[in-house]
Amino acid sequence: MMEKELSKAERTRQFIVETTAPIFNKKGYAGTSLSDLTDATGLTKGSIYGNFANKEEVAAAAFDHNSAMIRKQVLDRIQKAGTYYDKLRVYAQVYHSFTKGNKFPAGGCPILNTAVDADDTNPMLKDKAAHAVLRWKKSIENLIQSGIAAGEFKADADANSISLAMIALIEGGIMIAKVTNTPASLDTILQTVDALVAGLKL
């Protein structure tokens, strides 16, 4: 089935989002200027704001783009994994390669960056980051509950606390690796995520 052809306006919006997404992820909302957007895209202020109401709307679309890049990698790997144990391990495996280039957004984890950048300063972006965390938590919980139902995991496994711990370890690991410039710290922390998942097995 052929994909629906985008209109010129939709293509322009997509170009703006894809071009500015790495900038917002590296510099944050406040740190990204209009001239950053016009320089990167080669478009005028009028052209950008002819497609988006304001800078905040561009930033929101950029966040959606960046987080979708990560989500796609995770989901692709989960779909290929045979057991619920292997599906859960995908999170440690995917983020293990976070500091090694791969197809991750430039500038690091958009959820962590946006949560820190927008906290107390931009309620709309903070809300986007919160929704991304809650969606991530729900995905992990669903895998754990499915693993229990399939007889792979212990029946008394606490999906709520394990999902929160996994997210906290991964995001904390990324933050430590980034701020101390030691990617190996993330690798060490992800071994703990792996151990947490292994502890679910019957």
TrEMBL record:
InterPro entries for this protein: Homeodomain-like_sf (IPR009057), HTH_TetR (IPR001647), Tet_transcr_reg_TetR-rel_C_sf (IPR036271), TetR_C (IPR011075)
Domain HTH tetR-type stretches: 10-70
UniProt KW keywords: DNA-binding, Transcription, Transcription regulation
DNA-binding region range list: 33-52
PROSITE patterns per the UniProt record, alphabetical: HTH_TETR_2
UniProt key word tRNA processing: no
Protein name according to UniProt: TetR/AcrR family transcriptional regulator
Organism expressing this protein natively: Mucilaginibacter dorajii
